Amino acid sequence: MPSRRNQIEMTDEELRTFLAERKVVTVATVGPHGRPHLMPLWYVVDGTEFRGWTYAKSQKAKNLERDPRATLQIEDGEEYHELRGVMMECDVEIERDPDKVAAYGRALFARFDATGPDVDEMVAKQAPKRIGMRFTPTRIVSWDHRKLGGAY
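^ thats the sequence. predicted structure below, dont judge the formating
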């Protein structure tokens, strides 16, 4: 009898589709007192990596400077039989070069169909105050309870 874990795991294609459908990831970093610090973040999927940006003075940025690891979670569903999601343990690289950080910002806004000179100008103004973050998963766990067909 197959394990329930194997029954609900997303295929690579299901995972790619799920990540493309969603827009916000919850990022968990280790806070200054050793407790998890959870914050939402817009993201762009780049192959097997995720990219995002945040203010350089944010707690998330400070946490990642101290410990460049994060756990990401994206989820969907209300009822148990609808729940699906992915949890990724990641190594994080921080980008500080304003031109490269601006590229992160433009990619994020393009994902939300916001492009053009006004967006480029706004992103260019914000980039010096922000950092780019590249999340590289070292472990991925996914689930889709819809695959159980209502049988638990």
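The helical segments are 4-8, 12-21, 59-66, 98-111, 117-126.
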